[in-house]
Design a protein that fits this description.
alpha/beta; about 35% helix; globular
Length: about 210
């Protein structure tokens, strides 16, 4: 959805809002929650629903655990320009990676965290610039498996060119992976998280 109704500052986290330009001219709305003594920087790739405002309590929660957080709205979401597409999401990831890698002071670890739709985008990001670790929450191996198993996502079948090949991308990535999935997930079934875990290489943990 478009717009912004709240920020992570409403949940006790400092937020700096920025605009990041993509290579194809879109402008992405980005939040940075800077921790004074970060254990790591987390680049957060949110799910399909809502916009940054919806994910604000989660982002603040990660911050309060001792992490700097970089999060953004995909093109067409929130205050970002454009319209979403699979190729466009990857271009968004390219722009955010350039921004995040510039600000991280090594040897501070860098972690990518993708949720649902964001697992594919995070997996793509890991093939471009390998992080120190990647978290895939509520993920799936690819779009075909998702449309077969999840009625709420059946609309993706209308877009036959959409692949979202999370497992394939992860096999090309060079990063230890933590896979998380709720066993009561009604949008992305639990068995798809297990399938994703089984289809990627080591090191990994479910």
């Amino acid at each position: 959805t478009r717009g912004e109704t709240t920020t992570a500052s409403g949940f006790g986290a400092p937020v700096a809002a920025e605009t990041i330009e993509t290579a194809d001219g879109e402008r992405l709305h980005c939040w940075t929650l800077t921790h004074s003594r970060p254990r790591a920087t987390v680049v957060y790739f949110h799910g399909n629903g809502g916009n940054l405002s919806v994910w604000a309590p989660i982002l603040a929660g990660v911050y309060h655990q001792g992490f700097t957080v970089v999060a953004f709205d995909y093109r067409g979401y929130g205050l970002s320009t454009g319209r979403p597409s699979e190729r466009g999401l990857y271009r968004d990831a390219d722009a955010i990676l350039e921004h995040a890698w510039r600000r991280v002071e090594r040897p501070e670890p860098l972690v990518y965290w993708g949720r649902s739709l964001g697992t594919t985008v995070a997996a793509y990001a890991a093939t471009v610039r390998p992080p120190d670790g990647i978290i895939l929450e509520s993920g799936f191996p690819d779009a075909r498996s998702l449309t077969r198993s999840s009625p709420p996502m059946a609309f993706l079948a209308l877009f036959s060119t959409y692949r979202f090949p999370t497992a394939e991308l992860m096999r090309r990535a060079d990063a230890p992976a933590l896979i998380m999935h709720g066993d009561q997930d009604r949008v992305v079934p639990y068995q798809l998280g297990r399938a994703l875990f089984e289809q990627i290489g080591d090191p990994k943990q479910f």
